[in-house]
Amino acid sequence: MNRSASAVWHGTGRDGKGTLTTQSGVLDGTSYSFTTRFEDEKGTNPEELIAAAHAGCFTMALAFALQSKGLTPTELKTEAVVSLEKDGAGFKVSKSALTLSAHVPGISAEDFAEVAKGAKEGCPISKLLNAEITLDASLV
């Protein structure tokens, strides 16, 4: 399975502007720029997209892991915060912090912690990231 996205950029790094388009069309000429990445201008940026991908991937991996144990979650809600830090002359994604709130009838706190940890380590986006990955999981 392959998925694709493309970027088009015009101008310099600081003053230029770009667009992102995904194979599915969910992003279709979506704006991004220096100011959407390093300031607060409306638009997206690579780190926000990585955070969305990590939150979505982890949450789906957890749903599958719970299903394999015969459990059906009522709700799994995950936030991912991706940290971009200075790295020499450039930058690097240094961390993705996952925060999970879950409603899973019939699971003990110990089993929940184990399954959530396994989903964090096993989700394909976690495996892709060369960064510290943390998980703060709470069973509601």
UniProtKB/TrEMBL annotation:
Molecular function (Gene Ontology), one example: peroxidase activity
Matches recorded under Pfam families: OsmC
Top-rank taxon: Bacteria
Signal peptide bounds: none
Region (Disordered): 1-23
SUPFAM superfamilies, per database record: OsmC-like
GO biological process, one term: response to oxidative stress
Protein name: OsmC family peroxiredoxin
Species of the source: Phreatobacter cathodiphilus
